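Sample intake sheet
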Amino acid sequence: MGCRAPEQFHVLTPGRYVGTAAQEDDGEPFEEKMQRLVKQLREQQAEALRLDIAIAQNLEAPGFVINE
């Protein structure tokens, strides 16, 4: 009968074909880094909300309503 090769499936993830670059260790412990990044994300989300409100107010002034 012979050996039969397993079915090959098409994989669309680029890492399978090109590999990934080695990551350098930045020396920052994971827990500290995550706390810092989550804090930064929260600050950016608050700023985005502030800007969304300002934009909506600026558009409403000449009569453009965003949320109906």
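Comment: Residues 14 and 20 are 9 Å apart (CA to CA). The mean pLDDT is 84.
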